[in-house]
Design a protein that fits this description.
Elements (H helix, E strand, L loop, with lengths): L1 E8 L4 E8 L5 H8 L1 H4 L10 E3 L2 E3 L10 E4 L7 H14 L15
Parallel strand pairs: 1-5
Antiparallel strand pairs: 1-2, 3-4, 3-5
Length: about 110
Amino acid sequence: MIRVEVVFALPDKATSLTIEVVKGTTAEQAVIQSGIIDKCPEIDATALTLGIWNRTVKLTQELKEGDRIEIYRPLIADPKDARRKRAEKAKEEGRANKITGGRPLER
């Protein structure tokens, strides 16, 4: 048996469960065995995205002693789209050069 931790966090609260599983258990199996899906209705069990110690892993990743399995929430906004919108706004407001996107020349 090995001991692992299963974690899910929201902006205002976090749920952390330490469980013991059989060696060879996958990340997905540990999440299911932990019962965290029942405790946190915000988790979409059909579209799990998991990580171990801040590194995204496949659901079939075999666990090791002391692993911390993190359940990731879907992104609210695409980071590339958000960056693009900020850049366009800066150009419109004159805080960025309209051609290069860099800082405007001081005069």
